[in-house]
Amino acid sequence: MNDRHTVPSTSPLAMLIDNDLTMRLLLRQSLEQHGFRVEEASGGKQALEMLTHLQPDIILLDVAMPDMDGYAVCQQLRQRSGFEHTPVVVVTGIEDVNSVNHAYKVGATDFVSKPINWTIFGHRMRYILRSSQAFTGLKTSEARSNALLRAIPDMIFRQDGAGRYIDFQGGQGDMLLMPPERFIGKMMEDVLPHEIAEPALQHLRRVLSSGSAQRFEYQLEIDGTMCYFEARMVASGENEVTSLVRDITDQKLYADQIQQLAFYDNLTDLPNRRLFYEHLEHEIRQCDRTDGVLAILFLDLDRFKVINDTLGHSTGDAVLVEVGRRLTDCVRSADAVARPGHEDSMTSVARLGGDEFTMLLGGIQDARDSEPVARRILEALFVPISVEGRDLFVTPSIGIATYPADGSDAGTLLKNADAAMYKAKEEGRNCIRFYSNSINDRALARFTLEADLRKALDEDGLEVYYQPQVDLRTGKATGMEALVRWNHPQRGFISPSDFIPVAEEAGLIDGLSRWVMHTACAQARAWSQQGAGEVRMAVNLSARQFYAGNLAHVVADVLASTGLPSRLLEVELTEGMVMKDPKVTLDALEALKGMGVSIAVDDFGTGYSSLAYLKKYPLDVLKIDRSFVRDIATDPDDAAIARAIIVMAKSLGMVVIGEGVETEQQLAFLRENGCDQAQGYLMARPASAGDAEKYLRGHLLITDHFRKQAVD
Questions:
Q1: What distance lies between CA 119 and its chain's CA centroid?
Q2: Which tens digits make up the pLDDT trace of 607-623?
Q3: What DSSP line would sit under 561-599, residue for residue?
Q4: pLDDT digit string (tens) for 89-134?
Q5: Is 677 in contact with 658 (CB distance < 8 Å)?
Q6: Which of 239, 259, 323, 531 has the most CB atoms around its CB within 10 Å?
Q7: Whether residue 573 has pLDDT greater than 50
Q8: Per-residue b/e over 493-515, b at no fewer than 16 CB within 10 Å?
Q9: Which residues lie below 8 Å from residue 65, measured CB to CB, with a gap of 6+?
Q10: Residue 351: beta bridge partners?
Q11: Nearest Cα to 359, choosing from 345, 343, 377, 344?
């Protein structure tokens, strides 16, 4: 049972209506801390049933509920006797003005946007409840004073037609600057500052001449604090006016906070996505009236995640704040690109979230006008950002889309600027790229490929193929490399070089890699049980899988669930993975080695090719990259590199495998120079599990070279 605050039974009762249990718990905790009793309902229908025997003092209502939305609940409540004036506060992630207006239309008293500012939440509910109770009290005193129905009074003044104070009654608060005896009988202009007295007298005269109530606001500094008041004037007798004055300082504060939360980023104080859209839509309308042009610059910080991951989010936040400041400076200088005749146009910078920023340039003459501004941004961010004595370097990739050439609405323009930004990243980062249809086509193709890949993973649409690794002395298949294949129902076979990068970017690579490892190990175990012989199964690891921190646990689970002996599993890593983080690499490799798993370095020769790391790590197999094998028989440099790799590996007691063998000449070179094994189309292409089993059962892979060797 959850611990709850002990709240007296006489305390005000709050009713929570929200299908989210976590949100109800948070709301309950905050309300009980501020002296409320709390009842809960997990949906609209349940709430309406409970309210037949409950009479809460305030109701907090979520909009998005599966059985009955909050608007319908509020509307039905207002039609019930006894709930006409019960304060109803909508607690929701409302994103647009229309939703807010709709909430008020069906009877909501107020709304609180998610995420909730818990610091002021309880105080605000107290204020709303207090205001509601005061209003209800006024309704019950209607017979005694019709004037009091027009406002919730804090202070009540009576004046004659000339503006002379003739009476005073204190309200719920006491903001008088002097006792009543000092101003009763005096004129307003003798009591109030001129800037307040003058409009007050004008409103008083309108009340007397028209008979209609008047309302105005004013501000007054009291003890060094600026306070805000609302005055309502009503005719209360012949040539007499009653002024109802309320302190609305808190209300103004809450309104400012709501405005800030709704339209501005709470870290950088820049406009957020919502306000940026409003600015953009305004500029589009302006361009339509003037045949103008506007540009959107979409900016993403390159490798910002590295700063967050290595130095912490507080450092990352400091960087984002400084980037926002520099972009704001660039906006000021960008105003110079606007041309005469576009005075209503604006330049604006916004933070959309994360490390993504946008800049809007309105009223420009040509798309090219945006490029100097983008160059200025590159220059501004070239200067290092100092955080706690450490200089940090961030660079931006900037995509630019223009109206009307690159889109007819705000959403399309932003999407196309985003696509151009990704093009900038693809072409080296820290650069500027304009949008074009070809960028959009590539983005759409990638999105479609990702969606199809997700579906293939969910529906077992992928398959593992196997390519033999052949002993160069005997021609026997001593190992199999597991290779994932995708036969798309419409597009046919899709190359792994096309869909593996998509899987990595979309966060699918972990699940895909684990599935391949499990499938391959289960197949190796099945071949052994079916009498096809034991075979070492080589499985490629992704960088993300290797550095996830739980690789040994994953491998142990796979081996346990498939029953494959650990000595028959070989994991393959690239040189880049091995060298990225030596400490993490060594720990991971030693854990695998301790389990009895073999470790191979794939594509050797294309990266560091360092004897130092070969000696440092517990490696078993070295695979010569196919780029050296391809011209090994004709290119002296490739031949020399291959010989050196073989000698180096042999000196360390490692097995050497040549990859991509396609010709008899390549095979002969590797065999003559002491290479242990080979893998490539000359011996066998990657094949399904059924065809790969035939290689195993045949013992010899039939190529001309091995057939001749067998005859000899």
A1: 24
A2: 555 666 678 889 999 99
A3: HH---GGGEEEEEEHHHHHH-HHHHHHHHHHHHHHT-EE
A4: 988 776 667 878 888 898 988 888 888 888 888 888 999 888 888 7
A5: yes
A6: 323
A7: yes
A8: ebeeeebbebbbebebbbebbbe
A9: 17, 18, 19, 43, 44, 73
A10: 357
A11: 377
Q: Are 624 and 658 in contact (CB under 8 A)?
A: yes
The tokens of 529 are what? 């049980």
- Which among 351, 433, 375 is positioned nearest to 399, based on CA atoms? 433
What is the pLDDT, as a whole number, of residue 145?
53
Nearest in space to 647 (alpha carbons), one of 614, 692, 686, 685: 614
Angstrom distance (rounded) from CA 475 to CA 709: 9
Order of all β-strands in the sheet with 88-92: 37-41, 13-17, 58-61, 88-92, 110-113
Contact 88, 77 (CB under 8 A): yes
The answer to whether the bond into 404 is cis (omega within 30° of 0) is yes
Asked whether the beta carbons of 298 and 421 are under 8 A apart, the reply is yes
Instruction: Give the pLDDT band of residue 360 (cuts 50, 70, 90).
Output: very high
Quick check: 377 and 330 in contact, CB under 8 A? yes
Tokens 């801390």 map to which residue? Answer: 33
* CA dist 506 → 56, 450, 500, 580, 615 (Å): 48, 7, 10, 22, 36
Cα separation of 208 and 235, whole Å? 7
User: Taking the model in full, what pTM does it have?
Assistant: 0.50
pLDDT single digits (tens) 438-460: 666 776 787 789 889 999 999 99
d(CA 111, CA 592): 56
Pairwise CA distance, residues 251 & 152, whole Å: 13
- CA dist 425 and 376 (Å) reads 18
Q: Which residues pair with 346 in a beta bridge?
A: none
Residue pair 111/103 in contact (Cβ under 8 Å)? The answer is yes
**Which tokens is 60 given?**
């907090």
Token digits of residue 292:
């103008």
Q: Rounded to a whole number, what is the distance in angstroms from the first to the last CA of the chain?
A: 82
The label of the residue with tokens 């199809």 reads: 452
> Which residue, 115, 96, 133, is CA-closest to 27?
115
Top mean pLDDT of 23-32, 286-295, 338-347, 553-562 is at 553-562
* Per-residue CA distances from 172 to 72, 137, 251, 306 (Å): 34, 12, 15, 56
| Maximum mean pLDDT: which of 119-123, 313-317, 341-345, 347-351 | 313-317
Tell me which amino acid residue 214 is: Q
Antiparallel, parallel or unpaired: β 240-247 and 155-160: antiparallel
Asked if 338 contacts 263 with a C-beta cutoff of 8 angstroms, the reply is: no
480 closest CA partner among 489, 471, 488, 472: 471
Burial of 392 (0-12, 13-18, 19+ CB in 10 A): middle
Nearest CA to 593 out of 564, 570, 561, 615 is that of: 570
Q: What dihedral angle (degrees, nearest 10) is formed by the CA atoms of 76, 81, 83, 85?
A: 120
Strand boundaries in 202-283, DSSP class E: 214-222, 225-237, 240-247
Residue 456 and residue 486 in contact, taking contact as beta carbons nearer than 8 Å: yes
Q: What is the mean pLDDT of residues 340-363?
A: 78
Gap between the Cα atoms of 18 and 408, Å rounded: 39
Mean pLDDT, residues 291-305: 90
